[in-house]
Amino acid sequence: MSGSLKSFQPKEPLHLVTKHQAIDAGLDYLHGAGADFICKVCIPSGGSCCTGCSFLNNGVGCQQRNTSCTAWLCGFLKYIFYEAGLITEWESFWDQVPGQQFREDTTPPSFVVDRMLESPKIRFLSEAFAEDLKEQIAINYPYWVLEIKETLDRYVDMLMDYTDPEIKRKIEKKLRYVLKDFKNLQLALEML
Protein backbone atom coordinates (compact mmCIF):
# COMPACT_ATOMS: atom_id res chain seq x y z
CA MET A 1 0.00 0.00 0.00
CA SER A 2 2.92 2.34 0.52
CA GLY A 3 3.49 4.65 -2.40
CA SER A 4 -0.10 4.36 -3.65
CA LEU A 5 -1.31 7.44 -1.80
CA LYS A 6 0.15 10.75 -2.83
CA SER A 7 0.18 13.63 -0.43
CA PHE A 8 -1.88 16.65 -1.40
CA GLN A 9 0.20 19.42 -2.94
CA PRO A 10 -1.78 22.58 -3.72
CA LYS A 11 -0.83 24.45 -6.89
CA GLU A 12 -0.81 27.73 -4.99
CA PRO A 13 0.04 28.34 -1.34
CA LEU A 14 -2.99 28.22 0.90
CA HIS A 15 -4.06 31.35 2.78
CA LEU A 16 -5.99 31.42 6.02
CA VAL A 17 -8.29 34.45 5.77
CA THR A 18 -10.99 35.89 7.94
CA LYS A 19 -14.45 36.69 6.67
CA HIS A 20 -13.67 40.39 7.05
CA GLN A 21 -10.40 40.05 5.10
CA ALA A 22 -12.33 38.43 2.23
CA ILE A 23 -14.91 41.23 2.26
CA ASP A 24 -12.17 43.88 2.39
CA ALA A 25 -10.32 42.19 -0.50
CA GLY A 26 -13.56 42.22 -2.49
CA LEU A 27 -14.24 45.88 -1.72
CA ASP A 28 -10.65 46.84 -2.65
CA TYR A 29 -11.04 44.94 -5.91
CA LEU A 30 -14.34 46.68 -6.68
CA HIS A 31 -12.71 50.04 -5.95
CA GLY A 32 -9.79 49.22 -8.26
CA ALA A 33 -12.32 48.32 -10.93
CA GLY A 34 -14.12 51.66 -10.49
CA ALA A 35 -17.44 50.29 -9.27
CA ASP A 36 -18.10 53.56 -7.45
CA PHE A 37 -18.29 55.46 -10.77
CA ILE A 38 -21.04 53.16 -12.01
CA CYS A 39 -22.94 53.05 -8.71
CA LYS A 40 -23.00 56.87 -8.48
CA VAL A 41 -24.89 56.95 -11.80
CA CYS A 42 -27.00 53.82 -11.45
CA ILE A 43 -28.34 54.17 -7.90
CA PRO A 44 -29.91 57.66 -8.31
CA SER A 45 -31.47 56.42 -11.55
CA GLY A 46 -33.40 53.68 -9.76
CA GLY A 47 -31.02 50.82 -10.46
CA SER A 48 -29.86 50.10 -6.91
CA CYS A 49 -29.01 46.46 -6.28
CA CYS A 50 -29.89 46.92 -2.62
CA THR A 51 -33.46 48.23 -2.96
CA GLY A 52 -35.61 46.57 -0.33
CA CYS A 53 -32.74 45.18 1.74
CA SER A 54 -33.35 45.52 5.49
CA PHE A 55 -29.64 46.20 6.11
CA LEU A 56 -29.68 49.37 3.98
CA ASN A 57 -30.06 52.68 5.82
CA ASN A 58 -31.07 55.58 3.59
CA GLY A 59 -28.25 58.09 3.29
CA VAL A 60 -25.87 55.89 5.29
CA GLY A 61 -25.49 52.71 3.27
CA CYS A 62 -25.13 49.06 4.16
CA GLN A 63 -25.16 48.28 7.88
CA GLN A 64 -24.23 44.60 7.62
CA ARG A 65 -21.78 43.93 4.81
CA ASN A 66 -21.52 40.22 4.04
CA THR A 67 -19.70 37.89 1.65
CA SER A 68 -22.70 37.27 -0.62
CA CYS A 69 -23.42 40.91 -1.37
CA THR A 70 -19.73 41.69 -1.81
CA ALA A 71 -19.31 38.79 -4.25
CA TRP A 72 -22.41 39.57 -6.30
CA LEU A 73 -21.90 41.59 -9.50
CA CYS A 74 -24.61 43.57 -11.25
CA GLY A 75 -24.80 43.33 -15.02
CA PHE A 76 -22.77 46.51 -15.46
CA LEU A 77 -19.84 45.33 -13.34
CA LYS A 78 -20.06 41.82 -14.72
CA TYR A 79 -19.69 43.28 -18.21
CA ILE A 80 -16.72 45.46 -17.17
CA PHE A 81 -15.02 42.48 -15.52
CA TYR A 82 -15.66 40.36 -18.62
CA GLU A 83 -14.17 42.93 -20.99
CA ALA A 84 -11.15 43.43 -18.73
CA GLY A 85 -10.57 39.68 -18.47
CA LEU A 86 -11.24 39.66 -14.72
CA ILE A 87 -14.52 37.77 -14.42
CA THR A 88 -12.96 34.32 -13.97
CA GLU A 89 -10.52 35.60 -11.32
CA TRP A 90 -13.38 37.24 -9.41
CA GLU A 91 -15.65 34.21 -9.57
CA SER A 92 -12.84 31.78 -8.72
CA PHE A 93 -12.02 33.71 -5.56
CA TRP A 94 -15.62 33.86 -4.35
CA ASP A 95 -16.22 30.19 -5.20
CA GLN A 96 -13.76 29.46 -2.36
CA VAL A 97 -15.76 31.45 0.21
CA PRO A 98 -18.29 29.26 2.04
CA GLY A 99 -21.71 30.21 3.34
CA GLN A 100 -22.95 32.73 0.76
CA GLN A 101 -26.71 33.17 0.65
CA PHE A 102 -29.11 35.82 -0.63
CA ARG A 103 -28.29 39.12 1.14
CA GLU A 104 -26.77 37.29 4.10
CA ASP A 105 -24.17 34.69 4.82
CA THR A 106 -23.16 31.92 7.18
CA THR A 107 -19.51 32.34 6.27
CA PRO A 108 -17.31 31.12 9.13
CA PRO A 109 -15.03 33.63 10.88
CA SER A 110 -12.00 32.16 9.04
CA PHE A 111 -11.40 29.72 6.19
CA VAL A 112 -8.72 28.72 3.69
CA VAL A 113 -8.37 29.97 0.11
CA ASP A 114 -5.75 29.08 -2.49
CA ARG A 115 -5.80 32.47 -4.21
CA MET A 116 -6.36 36.05 -3.13
CA LEU A 117 -7.64 39.02 -5.08
CA GLU A 118 -5.31 41.80 -6.10
CA SER A 119 -6.98 45.09 -6.88
CA PRO A 120 -7.06 45.77 -10.64
CA LYS A 121 -6.22 49.11 -12.19
CA ILE A 122 -9.16 49.63 -14.53
CA ARG A 123 -10.99 52.55 -12.92
CA PHE A 124 -10.75 54.40 -16.25
CA LEU A 125 -12.91 51.73 -17.90
CA SER A 126 -15.76 52.03 -15.38
CA GLU A 127 -15.48 55.81 -15.41
CA ALA A 128 -15.94 55.84 -19.20
CA PHE A 129 -18.84 53.39 -18.91
CA ALA A 130 -20.47 55.55 -16.22
CA GLU A 131 -20.17 58.69 -18.38
CA ASP A 132 -21.93 56.91 -21.24
CA LEU A 133 -24.49 55.40 -18.89
CA LYS A 134 -25.39 58.84 -17.53
CA GLU A 135 -25.85 60.21 -21.06
CA GLN A 136 -28.01 57.26 -22.09
CA ILE A 137 -30.17 57.37 -18.96
CA ALA A 138 -31.00 61.01 -19.74
CA ILE A 139 -32.38 60.17 -23.20
CA ASN A 140 -34.08 56.83 -22.53
CA TYR A 141 -37.30 55.76 -20.78
CA PRO A 142 -37.40 55.40 -16.97
CA TYR A 143 -36.81 51.65 -16.70
CA TRP A 144 -34.09 51.51 -19.35
CA VAL A 145 -31.29 51.34 -16.76
CA LEU A 146 -32.80 48.18 -15.26
CA GLU A 147 -33.33 46.59 -18.66
CA ILE A 148 -29.81 47.19 -19.94
CA LYS A 149 -28.30 46.02 -16.64
CA GLU A 150 -30.25 42.75 -16.90
CA THR A 151 -29.38 42.37 -20.59
CA LEU A 152 -25.66 42.73 -19.93
CA ASP A 153 -25.92 40.30 -17.02
CA ARG A 154 -27.66 37.72 -19.20
CA TYR A 155 -25.22 38.09 -22.12
CA VAL A 156 -22.11 37.78 -19.94
CA ASP A 157 -23.58 34.74 -18.21
CA MET A 158 -24.14 33.19 -21.63
CA LEU A 159 -20.58 34.02 -22.70
CA MET A 160 -19.29 32.31 -19.56
CA ASP A 161 -21.51 29.25 -20.08
CA TYR A 162 -21.01 28.57 -23.79
CA THR A 163 -17.81 27.21 -25.29
CA ASP A 164 -18.79 27.15 -28.97
CA PRO A 165 -16.84 30.00 -30.64
CA GLU A 166 -19.64 30.72 -33.13
CA ILE A 167 -22.24 31.12 -30.37
CA LYS A 168 -19.85 33.33 -28.39
CA ARG A 169 -19.20 35.48 -31.47
CA LYS A 170 -22.95 36.02 -31.92
CA ILE A 171 -23.43 36.96 -28.27
CA GLU A 172 -20.51 39.41 -28.42
CA LYS A 173 -22.05 40.94 -31.53
CA LYS A 174 -25.31 41.45 -29.60
CA LEU A 175 -23.33 43.04 -26.76
CA ARG A 176 -21.66 45.47 -29.15
CA TYR A 177 -25.08 46.40 -30.56
CA VAL A 178 -26.59 47.01 -27.11
CA LEU A 179 -23.63 49.28 -26.25
CA LYS A 180 -23.25 50.93 -29.67
CA ASP A 181 -23.88 54.40 -28.24
CA PHE A 182 -21.30 54.00 -25.46
CA LYS A 183 -18.55 55.97 -27.24
CA ASN A 184 -16.41 56.73 -24.17
CA LEU A 185 -16.44 53.04 -23.31
CA GLN A 186 -15.29 52.08 -26.80
CA LEU A 187 -12.31 54.43 -26.48
CA ALA A 188 -11.46 53.11 -23.02
CA LEU A 189 -11.63 49.47 -24.22
CA GLU A 190 -8.92 50.30 -26.74
CA MET A 191 -6.63 51.15 -23.81
CA LEU A 192 -6.85 47.66 -22.28
How is this structure best described in words?
This is DNA mismatch repair protein. The protein is mostly helical and 192 residues long. The protein has one domain. Helices cover 53% and strands 8% of the residues. The protein has helices spanning 19-32, 35-42, 67-71, 75-83, 87-95, 123-139, 144-161, 165-178, 183-189; strands at 15-18, 56-57, 61-62, 100-101, 104-105, 110-113. The chain has a two-stranded antiparallel sheet. A two-stranded antiparallel ribbon has the order 2-3. β4 (100-101) and β5 (104-105) form a beta hairpin. It is globular. The relative contact order is 0.17.
Q: Quick gist of this model?
A:
This protein is mainly alpha-helical and about 190 residues long. The chain is about 55% helix and about 10% strand.
Number of domain units: 1
Overall structural class, as computed from helix and strand content, comes to mainly alpha
Question: Count of helices?
Answer: 9
What is the mean pLDDT? 91
Overall shape: it is globular
- Measured as a percent range, the helix fraction is 40-55%
- How many angstroms does the end-to-end distance come to? 53 Å
Protein name: DNA mismatch repair protein
